[in-house]
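Regression check, nicotinamide-adenine-dinucleotide case 265:
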Amino acid sequence: MLFSRALVTGGAGFLGSHLCDALVALGENVTVLDNLSSGKRQNIRDALKSKKIKFILGDCKNSRDVRKAVSEADVVYHFAANPEVRLSLADPATSFRENIYATHVLLEAIRKSDVNRIVFASTSTVYGDAKVVPTPEDYAPMEPISVYGASKLASEALITAYCQTYYKTAIVLRLANIVGPRSEHGVISDFVKKLKANSRRLEILGDGHQKKSYLHVEDCISATLTASEITTQGEVLNVGSTDQLEVAGIAEIVTHEMGLDNVCF
Ligand code: NAD
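Current build output:
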């Protein structure tokens, strides 16, 4: 059972655009709300050829834009955010504004609308430096170590509270590091950019032994669509893989795939 009218916030971004492709392929009516701060219209170029998709250039922090977008939806996939962990160190206010405040504005519109469920792109960084890996969803205490992670945890709390209060369904997806075409954030695109600028030397932040879980975008979207059909009142789900890769290992894969030899790490 899927829904006939979906709103995808951040639909022109990496994950949002793959979700739009999948929803359009399933015959859903899709509205995209995106301010194009990091997303690109080009990402949904193919999806926009369908009559089933509508693009609204607007901002989740603007209640008029949001009311318009929400008015035609039964389900909202809330994927818009500023996902830059490092930016959240230098400029925490952006994480607050773009992640927490924007989520609040969206929820205010949702509570007065016919939307009956929200699927939220959260992150595994809400756990912080968890002592248990793979980390179960009921792990506690949750102590994010970045303002970005904290802003996502706060957004999760707002979403679940609004949904409890106004009888809607909240599905929170704690995503691992997602990789694949159109990605412009994270360690892989960071390495590619650095190696294009200097193919002899690659700076790796930290000691290179940091381990993270990665998942391909197709699997992430498939998990998102499966989770969106959950019929219980609310659910929090990890979306990732059980194995982990060291950052230094990723550097080796990226240099190999780019056909580079003798790169100094
Ligand atoms: P992205 O930057 O490619 O996409 C975010 C989209 O949101 C962009 O199109 C941007 O223009 C839009 N946007 C940002 N602020 C907006 C606002 N105020 N109003 C309207 N549109 C706005 O990032 P992504 O990698 O596709 O991430 C999508 C979601 O998944 C984010 O919420 C992110 O926190 C979460 N997430 C991503 C990953 C990952 O590995 N990519 C991992 C965990 C969680």
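Comparison notes: The pocket of nicotinamide-adenine-dinucleotide is lined by residues 9-10, 12-16, 33-39, 59-61, 79-83, 98, 102, 121, 123, 175, 177-178, 185-186 (CB under 6 Å). The first strand starts at residue 5 and ends at 9. No diff flagged against the previous build.
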